Amino acid sequence: MVVSDAMLRLIDAAGVLAFAISGIRMAGKKDYDIFGAFVIGFVTAIGGGTLRDLLLGKTPVWMQDSIYILLTFVAVLFVMIFRKNLIKLEVPFFIFDTLGLALFNVVGIEKTLVCGFPWWVAITMGMITGAAGGIIRDVLLSQEPLIFKKEIYATACIFGGLVFFVSDFLFNDVLVSSLLCASSVVVLRVLALKYGLSIPKLWNNK
Fold first, then answer.
1. Do 130 and 100 meet the contact criterion of CB atoms below 8 Å apart?
2. For labelling, which of 23, 126, 164, 193 has a CA lying 20 to 30 Å from the CA of 187?
3. Mean pLDDT throughout 6-34?
4. Rounded CA gap, 18 and 7, in Å?
5. Tens digits of per-residue pLDDT, 141-192?
6. Chain center to CA of 191
7. Interior CA angle at 62 toward 12 and 152, to 5°?
8. Residue 151: phi, psi to the nearest 5?
9. Which uninterrupted H or E stretch holds 152?
C-alpha cells in the first residue's frame, strides 16, 4: 500500500524545504554569497531524489516540476530573515537536517514501492533519498560527509525503513506506517545526539 499522490507531494515538499534550509544554513556559515547558498540548498534538496529516480529508471522529479526551485528560493529567504539564529547555532541545522532525512526516507520508500520493487530495494532507496543530498552538500562544502562518520545518519534511515514495513504488516495502514517511519528516524537521531550513541569504528587508529 502507498499513500495518495497529494500526500506524497506534501511530504516531499516539506522534505525539500527542510533540506534546502539545512544546506543554505551551512553555506551561510561558510560565507557563501546568495547564489552559492541557493546552489548548495538546491543540491541538498534534490540530490538524493535525483539519484533515486535515475536508479529507478525515472526522470528526476525536479526536471518536471518547478516547485523544487521555488521552495529553495523560499528557503533562502527564510535563512536570510532568521540568519542570526540559524547560522550561529548548531541546533537549527540538526532539526532541519533530521526532518529532511526523515521525510525523504518516507518519500524514497513510497516511490520505490510505486515502481513495484520489493521491500529491501525500497529501504535502500529510502536511505539514498535521505542521505545522498547531504553527502553532495558536504563534499561541495569541503567537509567530511556525516554518513561516513560514526554518527547515526544513514543507519537511521534503514531503521526507519524497517519500522515502515513492520508497521505496514501489523496495521495495514500506509499513513500510520509513514508517520512511524519518519518519527523513528527523528527519535533515533535525537537519542543518538543526547546519549552519544554511535556506530563503532572499523578500528581505532589512536
1. yes
2. 23
3. 92
4. 17
5. 999 887 777 668 899 999 999 999 999 999 999 999 999 999 999 999 999 9
6. 18
7. 50
8. -60, 140
9. none
| Local structure of residue 115 (DSSP, 8 states) | T
Return the number of other C-beta atoms located less than 10 Å from residue 69's C-beta: 15
Please write the tens of the pLDDT for every residue from 112-148. Answer: 999 999 999 999 999 999 999 999 999 999 998 877 7
Give kind and range of the element (H or E) at residue 130. Answer: helix 119-140
pLDDT at 200: 78
Q: How many CA atoms lie within 13 A of 174 on its CB side?
A: 14
Which run of H or E residues covers position 13?
Answer: helix 5-29
Longest dimension (CA), the chain: 51
Q: What is the pTM of this model?
A: 0.91
Q: Cα–Cα–Cα angle for 71, 3, 78, nearest 5°?
A: 15
Q: How far apart, in whole angstroms, are the C-alpha atoms of residue 184 and residue 163?
A: 7
Dihedral angle, C-alpha 128, 35, 73, 185, nearest 10 °: 30
Summarised one tens digit per residue, pLDDT across range 48-74 is 999 999 999 999 999 999 999 999 999
- Cα–Cα distances in angstroms (integers) from residue 123 to residues 24, 28, 65, 70, 111, in the given order: 27, 32, 25, 29, 11
